[in-house]
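Researcher: Next sequence.
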Amino acid sequence: MVPDIALLKNKQQQIQLPNINSATPSPGSIVSTSSPESPSSSSPSCPGRSGSTSSFPSSPENFSSHHSNTHHHNSNDYSFYHHQQRSPRPPTNYHRLSTNKLPVCLVKSQLLDRIQNNETLIIIGETGSGKTTQIPQFLYEHLSSSKYHQPSTLPNGNCTSSSKVTIGITQPRRVAAVSVAQRVSQEIQCRIGDLVGYKIRFDDCTSSNTRIKYMTDGILLREAIHDPLLSNYRVIILDEAHERTVQSDLLFGIVKQAQRLRSGQKRPLDEDSDSSNGGQRHYEPLKIIIMSATMDVDNFSRYFNQAPVIYIEGRVYPIEIFYTESKHTDYATACLSTLFQIHQEEDELTFGDEPTRQNNDFSLIGGDILVFCTGQEEIESMIKIVQSYSAQTNIMKTSKGTVKTLKAYPLYSALPKTKQQRIFDRNLNDCFRRVIFATNIAETSITIPNIRYVIDTGKFKSKIFSPKTGFEIMRVENISKAQACQRSGRAGRLAPGKCYRLYTRPEYRSFSPFPIPEIQKCSIYSVLLQLIALGISNVQAFDFIDSPSIENIQSSLKKLMKMKAIEKENDSDVDYKLTKLGRTMVKFPIDPRYALLLIEAQKFRCTEEIITIISMLSVDNVFDTSMTNEKVIAIHRKFASSEGDLIKLLNVFRRYREAQQKMTWCQENYLRSYQLKQAGDIRQQLVDLCKQASIDLVSTPSTETVRKCLAIASGVGVGLGANIAEFQRDGDFRTITFGQNDRPSMTVFIHPSSCLFSQKPECVLFVELVQTNKSYMRNLCLIDRKWLLE
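Model: Next structure:
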């Protein structure tokens, strides 16, 4: 529950605002976010430190637990105390490149020398060091001007060449891949898509001239399936390696294998080769660079054959960190209370006698606020509250005069690019303060202008897979210490800042040092199918940086066998190969469950409908929930179906395709045009792939046939057919185990957003489980129990 806005306007009223106070640092003191907050012995300390002695901590125990200032307040759930941190001493086993200015530019020659002399290099670059934007430019200039090529000149004076030098840079998120590529193209003074480009799903902004290519992890993985040697690249940079997504962990092993294979392989002559080697020449060695601001470098160095580690200090400003005095259970209320008090009381931020302004006037009503949330729905809920608050307060007084109040913006991966761009286009003449509600995509890579305050809820959303139950559940979890450091560092990118952590100091100490790799907590049957498609028959022996559990691997292989996507090779107990069906499945860049469903839908003569449903499930919520008044609810109810949410999605897309003015139609029906357009793009891609795979594109007017297909086409007990629950006499639903004695049934509930919520259907199929205080089924479909016996 969020606090009443009217009560928040006066902290003397019933709902008391958090008491956020701290002593001002004395002139010349250093406010740092390192020391106790550093997550482990092999990680860099938090962003925000200052001075030439900053480096890796030797261990968490070496940090002082002394608080420079601790203020005790009234017994208030959202009271904060102030903590000023100190920088640790540098260890002796890392190469340290330090500078008082833009670090990467001033250590360019040392960096290139290390890259030249090492096949693999790990670069730990602090927030603000410029590693993501500058290092690819250094590499391209260096490689293009080597003795093998005749260089020419870039518009900005750097060297270039017509040779096929391609540097690939991966990012875990689309937002970062696009925004960083745009930034680099501006610096090089070239059109985006020419020398510098990016490639994300459904948006290929590259050309034959592109030599610096930013992309998501998934794009490079798809390329590796067709080209295991990654022969188009001279250098692969794996950026934001600390994120440890399933795809990034898979890429580590794939890229490492490509580097090894290329060291002894020969390739046919091309236009840049001579004929002195019998029509063949050796592949260029593949350089690998691993980059991050904070990660377990010891683990990464071991994995990449004792690769050397270079540490680069960042250009960051002092950051003050505040913790709550006591635990709270409602972080949403704490978040909004903190936000409104910051806005009312922090009209100008200064640190000592010398506030830093540099080249930009960031004194504008004290700077903007970045709030870390867990997901899109939470973001939209909080934005509604802020909009209501702003409408009531209208204007506010600051030392700069009368200005408009808060203006809220969302930031999440599914947000349209045009709306994402608004976050970065800050007009310094705007006389209002922005508050940006973001998911963890704002933790790294992107720099949002004028952020001076960060509110860290300490939470994020994560999928957890249980091999025992066979279900993957989405739930909210605590962040790691490394993530906390990244979040606080957002406040000090361009000026001094403050970070308000909505958790206690003891709670912070209980956080894990680093995020648990996704591959160790998610279902990996899709990963294993990709590996087998790459020719890696013994997936248990694959060189993961951190291996999934044997139980998870065996459970995933068993699932793929039931799907008939793989089979044992030569009666081996550990070697597998793709079946004919599996070879067709891997052609589709979707969940293997969906690929199998699509292929088997031919038998039910409803491939068109199944393609549409899969496309709609592949995008975020198409319903605009930013407004939930009676009018909006009534309009959305028009699309509802007594047969379930999946048929509702089918109805929405059918109506969308029929609309002549799609944008207007979406606005009138409170639907997200960007998500629907994206669903249309996915659908067209799947249609094209079906044609290539000779899959019949047939349609049916019967929604019952579609539901029957959804329930049994992929096989009872596997695919979507495994996600089935029955209504019980006690009023609950329990999942069906299909005779699998090793798989216990679960008590589950229909999510309130489902159009079946008010009904008590006998049997339902569901797509996903979301866990809060209960396990809720989302995206349901009504099915007949007797279908499962056919």
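Model: The first helix runs from residue 5 to 8. DSSP finds 23 helices and 31 strands in the chain.
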